[in-house]
Amino acid sequence: MAATTNTTTTPVDSISADELTAKAVHKRYEGLVMVRTKAIKGKGAWYWAHLEPMLVHNTDTGLPKAVKLRCSFCDAVFSASNPSRTASEHLKRGTCPNFNSLAKPISSVSPSPTTMAAAATTTQSNRKRRSSSVTVTTTGGVVVGSVPGCSYQATPLAIVDPSRYCGESDYSPSPGTTMTVSGGNLVAQHQQQLVLSGGKEDFSALAMLEDSVKKLKSPKTSPGPTLSKSQIECAVNLLADWVYECCGSVSFSSLEHPKFRDFLNQVGLPPVSRRVLAGSRLDAKYEAVKAESEARITDALFFQVSSDGWKVKRFASGEDSLVNLTVNLPNGTSLYRRAFFLNGSVPSKYAEEVLWETVTGICGNAVQQCAGIVADKFKGKALRNLENRHHWMVNLSCMFQGFNSLIKDFSKELPLFKTVTENALKLANFVNKTSQIQSCFQKHQLHEFGSAGLIRMPLHDTESLDFGPVYTMLEDILNSARAFQLLLHDETFKMLSMEDPFARKIAEMIRDTGFWSELEAVHSLVKLIKEMAKVIEKERPLVGQCLPLWDDLRTKVKDWCSRFHIAEGPVEKVIEKRFKKTYHPAWAAAYVLDPLYLIKDMSGRYLPPFKCLTLEQEKDVDKLITRLVSREEAHIALMELMKWRTEGLDEVYARAVQMKERDLVTGKMKIANPQSSRLVWETYLTKFKSIGKVAVRLIFLHATSCGFKCNWSFLKWVGAHEQSRIGMDRAQKLIFIAAHSKLERRDFSNDEEKDAELFASANVEDDVLNEVLVETSSV
Fold first, then answer.
1. What element of type H or E holds 397?
2. Which H or E run contains 586?
3. Please, are residues 338 and 286 in contact by the beta-carbon 8 Å criterion?
4. Least-confidence region, from 57-71, 95-109, 115-129, 323-337
């Protein structure tokens, strides 16, 4: 509904081409880095230890334009198109001046008859030979040589390769073997095979023993990196911040893992005590973050309280829930306030008390600083009661939850959902619980898709839960549609159909195109709503965006009805019922007061979109504005509202507010200055004194309570230790620090979701990365 605005003068096509190139180059670079990391851990080609991927940037745009490989020996740079060929030509063939000159470790050189004979021959040619034979004997892992007139003893290897004792290399004299060099030829006389009392595993013990001997003979080890005291303190602080901000993903006990301690030692850091990290350092970090948060809240003229988590979830200890309370500021930032844990459901009165205590705890007696509350809806009228008692507040239910509730409404009130669910359950039950059919079905799955599995089904009654498990079942059936068609032609299924009437009904269902059409229709509608809800959760729209989002939903659902030949009446009825439950008059008021949604009329003026409101919504705007101002200002506010409706905003300022730019990350167009709507009211539209005060408080309000998400592992830990006062105190501090950091970065996901996305996308990797992985595995 916003007017068309000017964007930058740079052509969109050229920008898109540069961005796509940079994105492809960066993917290639990340793929090579991942392969190199695996190779260094011993899971890839040897040459990755010496070749390092690097990005080459365009000097004009600053964007990556190519990926190169840098040799760590000589700093030479090569193309990254074929790392294996680069390694062969540069390293193996001796092109690198420093690669072949490096001393090889003793453990990597295995003695061979040729080299030993050559060494003996050289010694004999440089000296006057006093005897025609040289005897070399291995005794206790030490090589002892004797020549008439001279003797020598080789130091034992610090690392023992068991294959040398097992005869798997080209040549390896076993302990007790006598080797005689006679006439330039090496003659080995096997005396006896060394057998250790502990068996094969004793070779690792022997290696440790010889390593100790080497350390005793050469006590001076190569010094590790030396860091100053300030560098060590800075590094430990960063490590502590990382642990705190992961909020349970990284356990404190893991800091004392031997491998992690070895890592700290390698980089020159002292061991980190988990008790200190969970004690004094945690307290100091919490106090610093809390002081910063309090200062930012104090600077703001008003704020909104956001409350999320009132829905009960099941943890290890039973039915618990973590309620997060956040503070939204006018400048678009959010600050974490506190968290508390619920044990089971709570009455609405208790929620009302908690919310009001939060408000007074932030601003004391100056409660008019709180512009309102947004919360995920819970049973009762806590939000409405607070709003009725405090006329300046706007208390909203979460729109994200409203969209998700719409799916449950459809499943209960739309007959199509009930029919599809029942038929899908019959089909899934038949395939999953009939052993011979299950085997045939999975055979066809494996042939068609390369993998096989059961159809995931709801564990409980579908009417008592949300539609999520049913949606998963529908998705599995649709994804296996080809396997179901092949099942009809399977001899086993044909034989069963002749004997079992229910199998014949299942066969008719699979053949029925109407069944598949209805199944796809339900799945498509739920997917549509889920995707819109996901965008709402990610972008956290303001209250002025609510009406346009619901209009967008209606349009998409109307197209869905047309596509699947569904009657629009019953579907629209369900949507309107949910809309009325979620709707708040502030949606309409913020929509017409926000300059972002002004519409250019025929005369060139930018006017508020009153024509997009219904008659009831226009009345809601009047009522809300008169409620939010004092009684003395009510008539003045209505007069100003009429003036705003007819005059609107100057074209230059309207276009400046609505100006958009392309997001380099997502590629979508976004508002260039999100704070401009509020700033116009505060600085330019000063003649509207009454509705201006309402507008600046109203248009910044968030329409969702989506915010910080705590890790599931941490929540389970809290559920197991909720009776411990010290444990709960530490949990509160950890949550506060982690939430503050995530809200600062505008990161509203949790680590489990990110990991799930990572593993889900592992099968759909970029072709370039796949080529690199294949190449590495073949070397």
1. strand 394-397
2. helix 585-593
3. no
4. 115-129
Q: Determine the Cα–Cα distance for residues 127 and 123; give it in Å rounded to an integer.
A: 6
Please choose, from the candidates 435, 559, 416, the residue with its C-alpha nearest in 3D space to the C-alpha of residue 474: 416
- Dihedral of the alpha carbons of 534, 539, 545, 549, in degrees to the nearest 10: -20
Q: Which residue has the tokens 């205590």?
A: 357
C-alpha to C-alpha distance for 166 and 194, rounded to whole angstroms: 10
| 549 burial type by CB count under 10 A (0-12 exposed, 13-18 middle, 19+ buried) | middle
Q: CA-to-CA distance for 158 and 425, rounded, in angstroms? A: 65
> Please, which pLDDT band fits residue 484 given cuts at 50, 70 and 90?
very high
What band does 60 get if pLDDT is binned at 50, 70 and 90?
confident
Q: What is the DSSP string of 734-753?
A: HHHHHHHHHHHTT----HHH
Q: Tens digit of pLDDT for each residue in 223-266?
A: 556 788 888 889 888 888 888 888 777 878 888 888 888 888 88
Identify which has the larger pLDDT, 116 or 542.
Answer: 542
- Tokens 């029919």 locate to 419
- Contact present, 39 and 45 (Cβ < 8 Å): yes
Answer yes or no: is pLDDT of 185 > 50: no
**pTM of the predicted model as reported, rounded to 2 decimal places:** 0.68
Decide the pairing of beta strands 370-375 and 303-308: parallel
pLDDT of residue 280: 85
| Identity of the residue numbered 498 | M
Task: Residue count of the chain, please give it.
Answer: 779
Task: Give the Å distances, CA to CA, from 550 to 21, 135, 402, 544, 707.
Answer: 36, 93, 10, 11, 21
pLDDT digits (tens, 9 = 90+) for 74-110: 888 888 888 888 887 787 776 787 766 544 443 334 4
Burial classification of residue 103, based on how many CB atoms lie within 10 Å of its CB (0-12 exposed, 13-18 middle, 19 or more buried): exposed
DSSP string across 60-106: TT--EEEEEEEETTT--EEESS-HHHHHIIIIITS-STTTTTSPPPG
* Tokens of residue 44, six digits: 């890839």
pLDDT tens digits, 662-684: 888 778 888 888 899 999 999 99
Mean pLDDT of the chain: 79
d(CA 551, CA 540): 17
Q: Considering only CA atoms, which of 75, 179, 61, 173 is closest in space to residue 120?
A: 179
DSSP alpha helices (H): ranges in 540-584? 546-564, 568-582
Residue 367 has a pLDDT of: 93
Give residue limits of the domains in the chain: 12-92, 106-121+133-217, 414-538, 581-698
For tokens 């020159």, the residue is 268
pLDDT band at 548 (very low <50, low <70, confident <90, very high): very high
Alpha carbon 719 to chain centroid distance? 24
Hey, what long-range contacts does 669-677 have (CB within 8 A, 24 or more apart)? 669/7, 671/596, 674/332, 675/330, 675/331, 675/332, 676/595, 677/544, 677/594, 677/595, 677/596
Q: Which distant-in-sequence residues (6+ apart) come within 8 Å of 51 by Cβ?
A: 36, 69, 70, 71, 72, 78, 83, 86, 87
DSSP string over 419-433: HHHHHHHHHHHHHHH
Q: CA-to-CA distance for 217 and 236, rounded, in angstroms?
A: 35
Q: Check residues 678 and 747 and name the one with the higher pLDDT.
A: 678
- CA distances, 165 to each of 202, 285, 520, 704 (Å): 11, 56, 66, 69
Distance CA 740, CA 335 (A): 6
